[in-house]
Write a structure and sequence with these properties.
With about 300 residues, the protein is an alpha/beta fold. It contains 13 helices and 8 strands. Helix 2 packs across helix 12. The longest helix is centred in the middle third of the chain and has 18 residues.
Length: about 300
């Protein structure tokens, strides 16, 4: 790399200076190796429910090059905001995720817009020293400005997903009620074990979330649930996301499902999921809220 190119790289990431906030985000990677299990749907509707019903400040980071987060929330994403693409942040020497953040019309809820260039970031990250910790480093400031940071991970277990698992405190695993879902969950479980052993000893499984559940298939649903408990003992969410056309219609309109159809089963399911997540992380949140209060009084 020439001196000119090096200077360009440095200047590209020299965005505004951000003050350290008084929050301490719980970072959740929504991760599934198998596509089509409602990963993005669960990420955005959990995130918006935490912001709207629990008044938490939430950031959703789209690590999937398909960019479905922005597409699914298009009607509430603020237009005309300048930002640095997430791929540029991750490929830069001193990238800061805050440069990639865009606010939405929902108070306390922000996202990083879709970025197809993340496809190239997979290979770029592979050549970097400490490649597994790049996202974690870029996330340091953002963690002080949000209560929750959710990663919508790519379906592949590549460098971007690995970075998400290293940066995360918890993993949420969406899973369909199907026999084929076992294969993807089994592979993901092995990856989580390796990450925990080698890179992030604090990583915990927050829970397995069953999605697109057809209540008519009682026998099959019970069989799959019992078998899944062998992999994730005590980690199965009580909340089930049932099949509901309003969820897909809401995404087509670019709105959270509770905004599109407040009383539909999809809306109620994701509100219940948000409440269950809050309950599971209660001890963490109580400690954080107390710390924030003390800092505010000191300030």
């Amino acid at each position: 790399m020439s001196i000119t190119e090096k200077l360009k790289d440095i200047m590209m990431v020299s965005g505004p200076e951000y003050e350290t906030g008084n929050r301490k985000a719980q970072v959740i990677a929504v991760c599934a190796q198998k596509g089509g299990v409602g990963k993005t749907t669960s990420t955005i509707n959990l995130g918006t429910s935490l912001a709207y019903f629990h008044r938490r400040k939430v950031l959703v980071i789209d690590l999937d090059p398909q960019g479905h987060v922005e597409k699914s929330l298009g009607s509430i994403v603020t237009d005309g905001i300048e930002y640095t693409s997430l791929s540029q942040v991750l490929e830069s020497k001193k990238g800061n995720v805050m440069d990639a953040v865009v606010k939405t019309e929902l108070e306390g809820f922000d996202i990083t817009p879709g970025d197809r260039a993340l496809v190239q970031s997979e290979s770029v990250l592979g050549s970097r020293i400490g490649k597994e910790f790049i996202l974690s480093t870029a996330l340091k400031t953002a963690k002080t400005h949000y209560d929750f940071i959710l990663f919508d991970c790519s379906p592949s277990l590549g460098n971007l997903t690995l970075n998400a698992l290293v940066a995360a405190d918890h993993v949420l695993v969406p899973c369909e009620m199907s026999v084929l879902a076992f294969e993807g969950v089994s592979d993901l479980l092995e990856t989580l074990r390796e990450v925990t052993e080698r890179l992030n000893q604090n990583l915990k499984v927050l829970g397995v979330l069953f999605t697109r559940v057809d209540g008519r298939n009682v026998t099959m649903n019970n069989l799959i649930t019992e078998n899944m408990k062998r992999f994730f003992s005590g980690k199965i969410f009580k909340t089930l996301i049932t099949i509901n056309t309003a969820i897909n219609k809401a995404q087509l309109e670019g709105r959270p499902v509770f905004d599109y159809s407040p009383s539909c089963s999809g809306s109620l399911n994701y509100q219940a999921l948000a409440a269950e997540v809050m309950s599971r992380l209660k001890s963490h949140l109580v400690a954080i809220d107390g710390d924030v209060g003390r800092r505010s009084r000191v300030g």
